[in-house]
Write a structure and sequence with these properties.
Order of helices and strands: EEEEEEEEEEHEHEEHEHEEHHE
Number of strands: 17
Number of helices: 6
Shape: globular
CATH topology of the largest domain: QueA-like
CATH class of the largest domain: Alpha Beta
CATH architecture of the largest domain: 3-Layer(aba) Sandwich
Strand order of the largest sheet: 2-1-17-16-14-3-12-13-15
Radius of gyration: 20 Å
Number of domains: 2
CATH superfamily of the largest domain: QueA-like
Length: 359
């Protein structure tokens, strides 16, 4: 992977100072029929809720109208990570019991952190044989987060396009006719196990139209891992340990963003993953620093944002780190008022759902 600068890994919880934050305060009930099962066509025909932090107003539009709320010079910062076919299937050697692995993050050329189903009887030393012929693996042990470390007989990444499946979230029950529909149009750096869903709404035509208005696009990388789809199981947010993820901000992109900030232009994060890259890069408030490495920056209410001026995001799971990040940016009360209105107006939620622009 390319990129330069310091390798940053931030202790979880460092982001917040102040009153304790309770995870139960970020729970809500969503009618199941509002969980989007398939993407809309075209991509930018999804709905767009526009939320103003300045006056608390909420407007209802479509994503194709995004340019009506932006201005020349704004920089849309997008996560260019590409989803890998991270679901693989096989059986336990000896017993023949079927297993499913979701590859979460690569540790080296042959070792991966993975979720295994069923996982209760999988112990260190368990040997696995995978569909597709010839590939084997051994479970090395379990991690504190409940995943397993698996060492494969050969480097597995080159084989994934042949033996792997797209890792759609478990709440999506309809098969996806076109796997590219779970990729953004600008996805180019392989490594995520879930899509940066805020970017799924862009079409080539919309990008061209926004560029014609004088907006810029900038691309960063964050390979999405476990915490994107795992709810927090603690009550005190400081007891949650966020899963670290690889991210990268090139020197060229850092220069582009620093010029924009120096000229008073806005940085608009396309998705919570872009927020985490930008805020990791902005730990030194004087400038965004290029870097490559893992980050476990955990953003929740009380955090002071240094880089992000506006946010495009989807509607997130209750009790999730993503919902806490959005609430840190816009305020819990405004976010939950927006969510109540989204439910009332029958917005579509989660990965294939509608979008929100927070100004």
């Amino acid at each position: 992977m390319s990129g330069g600068g310091a390798i940053l890994c931030l202790p979880a919880g460092r982001a917040l100072a102040g009153q304790p934050v309770k995870v139960s305060d970020f729970d809500y009930q969503l009618p199941k029929e509002l969980i989007a099962q398939s993407p809309v066509e075209p991509r930018d025909s999804s709905r767009l809720m526009v939320v103003s932090r300045a006056d608390g107003s909420i407007a209802h539009r479509h994503f194709r109208d995004l340019g009506d709320f932006l201005r020349p010079g704004d920089v849309l910062v997008c996560n260019q990570s590409r989803v890998i076919p991270a679901r693989i299937f096989g059986q336990k050697a000896g017993t023949g019991g079927r297993v499913e692995l979701l590859l979460v993050s690569r540790q080296d050329k042959r070792a991966w952190e993975a979720l295994i189903k069923p996982g209760r009887r999988v112990r260190a030393g368990t040997r696995l044989a995978f569909d597709g012929g010839g590939l084997e693996g051994e479970v090395l042990g379990k991690t504190p987060s409940g995943t397993c470390l698996v060492r494969f007989s050969v480097p597995i990444e080159p084989l994934l396009d042949e033996i792997g499946m797209m890792p759609l979230p478990p709440y999506i029950h309809e098969p996806l006719a076109d796997a590219e529909r779970y990729q953004t149009i600008y996805a180019r750096v392989r490594g995520s196990v879930a899509a940066p869903t805020a970017g799924l709404h862009f079409t080539p035509e919309l990008v061209q139209r926004l560029a014609g208005m004088g907006l810029e696009f900038a691309f960063v990388t964050l390979h999405i891992g476990l915490d994107t789809f795992r709810p927090m199981k603690v009550e005190d947010v400081e007891d949650h340990r966020i899963h670290s993820e690889y991210c990268e901000l090139s020197a060229e992109t850092a220069g582009q963003l620093n010029r924009a900030k120096a000229e008073g232009r806005r940085l608009i994060a396309v998705g919570t993953t872009a927020v985490r890259v930008l805020e990791t890069a902005a730990l030194d408030p004087s400038a965004l620093a290029p870097f490559s490495g893992r980050t476990d920056l955990f953003i929740y209410p009380g955090y002071s944002f240094r880089a992000v001026d506006a946010l495009i995001t989807n509607f997130h799971f209750p009790r999730s780190t993503l919902l806490l990040l959005v609430s840190a940016f816009a305020g819990r009360d405004l976010v939950f008022r927006a969510y109540r209105e989204a439910i009332q107006e029958r917005y579509r939620f989660y990965s294939f759902g509608d979008a929100m622009l927070v100004l």
